[in-house]
Write a structure and sequence with these properties.
By secondary structure, the chain is of the alpha/beta class. It contains 8 helices and 7 strands. Helix 2 links the parallel strand 2 and strand 3. The chain starts with 10 loop residues before the first strand and ends in a 10-residue tail after the last strand. It binds NADP nicotinamide-adenine-dinucleotide phosphate. This is SDR family oxidoreductase.
């Protein structure tokens, strides 16, 4: 990775940083010079290992903010406040990455299961954005939600997930309008299938289909999503807001006939 410092001096909070994509986003932010606050709920060990890797590998500052369940509004506000306090009162970038992706058919789905997905993937984004924007009001900032290509084209068993991600894209557009006057930009990144350890064994059929469909010839990597988030948080994107950046190796660009 080339050595650049697109985000030097910035303070960023990444939610769900103990997970696969969150790790890729946090690493890329740190490589670009940002101080990174790593939120995790249960993945404390992974988050601490990542913080060490960041400190050793990039010299960037990193802190683990563990425990917040982002389905709880107060905990969203608390973790954002903790990040801003750690950042000396500033928060320049927030990446709303935490989310769940259960596979479940609509017939017979209990409303509680629907709500769990919507609360985790959508309502947490609303609350974290509201809290983050409050901190950013003085000097502006960038908020990026991790949506999905499924916001536009649902996969089987993912009605709740796809609906939550479509709503996240629309939330960003609406928030971009309302927060723009404060210099706060709000965008989404919509990844396609991102590789992880054990994915090919757990879902061979899906991986095979993705490999056939992808124009660029490989599955996505967490850092691909990180690159897009870095760009959107950087001065290179200072006139980009309310945008959905699809990161899927060209799968969504295929003809549908
Ligand atoms: N993987 C893909 O191919 C793909 C494609 C498109 C979009 N996405 C999106 O990318 C994001 C990250 O996905 P991933 O694949 O990296 O998944 P992951 O490894 O399972 O990570 C998701 C993270 O979200 C956190 N989380 C879940 N529920 C939470 C809650 N109630 N409160 C706080 N944190 C919570 C988890 O935290 P703890 O582990 O600490 O509990 C976990 O670290 C998600 O929004 C997902 O929908 C993924």
């Amino acid at each position: 990775m080339p050595s650049m410092t697109l985000l030097a001096g910035r303070v960023a909070l990444i939610t769900g940083a103990g997970g696969g994509i969150g790790r890729g986003i946090a690493l890329r932010f740190a490589q670009e010079g940002a101080a990174v606050a790593l939120h995790c709920r249960t993945g404390t060990e992974a988050a601490h290992a990542l913080a060490e890797e960041i400190a050793d590998g990039t010299g960037a500052r990193a802190v683990v903010l563990a425990g917040a369940d982002l389905t709880v509004e107060d905990e969203c506000h608390k973790v954002v406040a903790q990040a801003a306090e750690w950042g000396g009162g500033r928060l320049d970038a927030l990446v709303n990455n935490a989310g769940v992706q259960p596979v479940q058919d609509l017939p017979g789905m209990p409303a509680a299961d629907w709500r769990e997905v919507v609360d985790t993937n959508l309502t947490s984004v609303f609350a974290c954005t509201q809290a983050g924007a409050e901190v950013m009001r003085e000097r502006g900032g960038s908020i990026t939600h991790i949506a999905s290509v499924e916001a536009a084209r649902p996969a089987p068993g993912h009605a709740h997930y796809a609906a939550s991600k479509a709503a996240v894209v629309m939330h960003a557009r609406a928030a971009a309008q309302e927060y723009g006057a404060y210099g706060i930009r709000v965008n989404t990144v919509s990844p396609g299938l991102i590789d992880r350890e054990g994915l090919a064994e757990a879902w061979p059929e899906g991986v095979r289909r993705w490999r056939e469909a992808v124009a660029v010839g490989r599955l996505g990597r967490p850092e691909d999503v990180g690159d897009a988030c870095v760009f959107l948080a950087s001065p290179l994107a200072s006139w980009i807001t309310g945008h959905d950046l699809v990161v899927d190796g060209g799968v969504s660009a295929r003809p549908t006939w």
